[in-house]
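With this grant's support, the team has encoded backbone shapes as discrete tokens. A representative record is reproduced below.
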Amino acid sequence: MNRLFDRLRFESLILHLVLLSVAVHRADLRKLRSVDRKDVETNPLTNSVEFIWSATTVAVGDTAVLHCSFDAIFQQLSNANIDWMKETTKAAAAGESSSPEGSSVAVASGRRVVVEDSRFRVFRPHNSALSVLIIRRSKKKDAGIYRCNLSGSSTRHKYMILNVTESKIEAQTSPATMRAKIGNDVTLWCNATGYPKPIVYWTRDDRSRQLPDGTYQFWGNGLQVRSASESDTGVYTCYLDNFVQPIVTYKFSLMVEDNPWNLDGFRMRFDSKQWFAHDRADPKPVKTKSYLLMCEARGASRPQPLIRWYKDGKAIRSSKHFYIITDSPESKSNKASSTLVIMNFLPRFQGNYTCVASNVFRMKKLTFYVRGVESEGQETTPKDLTVKKKEKDRGAAASSHLTRDFNAIPTTDVQQ
């Protein structure tokens, strides 16, 4: 008897649980009927109404995908279709349930779309309890409450909210023009926000096309340039793409600057014992004797400047009349120099001589005005010419350097 009594108590408990679950389900339905559509639209992402099975948010123009599945009971209803309905604004506002009077609009039945809109698709895998409603190029009017029904069952349905929002892309970026010292690190950045969340990638738009890391495309908000060199100078572009709106682009110009350097000029006659400033008129050249002009770029510039010579605006090349001596940058890491030797000075060699020093970052130039020619035997060394101690030191070093290089001057003619 005790066992029979216990069994009856157990079955009674099971019955109460079933009735309780049915009551909860009916309460959920009453909540659905009383839902205010305005509340759903004004607070789409934070809506926590219990009867809503899922909530999906897409941007205008994006593709919306709604999933519905009845795996738990599909074996008992394996031949049933899954239908899709959309609650109308009037029905949702009035709190009514679906009915033949038109409180909801049929969207799809089984594998067939019944709404007259080519943007809607329905996907139903074979022998599956899953149905997928696809809405391409979503519009604001597509937002609302969707219901999927299992055919053959009056109570088997699920509700989903679809929110369709305006798509937007916003960004905070680094300045359009950036400068960096050579050897320093610099970062170009595009911090993108919006919906859907944009992805960010970078390319380079100048002749190099290659990014600092050696690739041709970089994904991420920040593009870092480590130990910047002159080859990193160029135009970089970041792209913001949320796959809905047109791609947004921002261009950045990066200039990698070298360390400052100065250009000094000196002149010397064959019988001088020191170098004189380039802007002095003396010493004057002596006919048929050598006359020297030197330009020196001083400073820790990278790369070292290249020095070229011009006479009255025309480029000078080594010939039987001119010889150019250029220091190798490897021998003097902090300076580069070039000396123009006018071999046998003649009156026709008078004029304006200009040295131009340049690298990829900057250009500087100095002009020597060479006027007047003295005859051999009348040459005089100016007594009032004085230079600073550092000029004397540089002049002595340059004189010894030129003494060595004169021995290497070729005797064959080189076309000017």
